Amino acid sequence: MPFPQWGDVPTWGLLVGAAFTVVFAGRAFNSQSKQLKDQQATNEKLAEVLPLQADELRESLDERAREKEYQRRAQASKVAAWFEVREMIPGKSASGLEWGAHIRNGSDLPILDVTTAFHSVKDPGNGQPWTPEYAADMVRPIRVIPPAGERFIQFHDSLRSQEKISPHDYVVSIGFTDAAGYRWRRDPRGALKDGTSSGGMDVTSFRPGL
């Protein structure tokens, strides 16, 4: 193709336009390449940061769940019960002693529908852990124990024929409802647990298997 003459204006115009097209195309390509590299760098940084943010979010949610559960158990954690032998009011017992369950509501709110059960202690000795065995429970629950209130539940009549009774021979479990309506239980070892079974049935006593 012959080189265009100076007087050939249209041809020179085409050449100049083509040159500008090449320049702008090169700049556009370089710009796109830079944007692609920047995007890749950003993606790499996100790939590093996102797992950390996910871990932080997970920890935050776990902490909120723990705090919520702590608040839910706050009142129930201040309720306790144990087997106790104590002196009776003079003149009411030949031995001067009575035994039963001592229940204490150490919270600032009342607890409701308090049930009580007695368990004999089976101690195999030889360093083996003792186990509770259901003995009897009180059919009639205590309707309300006020804030900072205490109640003493006498030993079940069916068990009073025993000659020797001590805090080493029996333990106590209770069920109760807190002021927020949650049902709880203290098992024979004193552990605080939800007072509903896996099937959602309200647990108001501590017969074997509950």
**Form type:** elongated
How much strand content do the residues show? 25-35%
Give the beta-strand count.
9
Helix content: 25-40%
Mean pLDDT level: 77
Separation of the first and last Cα atoms:
101 Å
Gyration radius over CA: 39 Å
* Backbone structural class: alpha+beta
Low-confidence sequence ranges: 197-210
Secondary-structure map:
Elements: H1 9-73, E1 79-87, E2 97-105, E3 111-122, E4 131-137, E5 142-145, E6 150-154, E7 170-177, E8 183-186, E9 192-194
Antiparallel strand pairs: 1-2, 2-6, 3-4, 3-5, 3-7, 7-8, 8-9
Describe this structure in words.
Helices cover 31% and strands 29% of the residues. By secondary structure, it is α+β, with helices and mostly antiparallel strands. The chain has 1 helix and 9 strands, in the order αβββββββββ.
Descriptive key words:
210 residues; alpha+beta; six-stranded antiparallel β-sheet; three-stranded antiparallel β-sheet; 1 helix; 29% strand; disordered C terminus
Write a brief caption for the model.
The radius of gyration is 39 Å and the shape is elongated. The chain contains 1 helix and 9 strands, in the order αβββββββββ. 18% of the residues are buried.
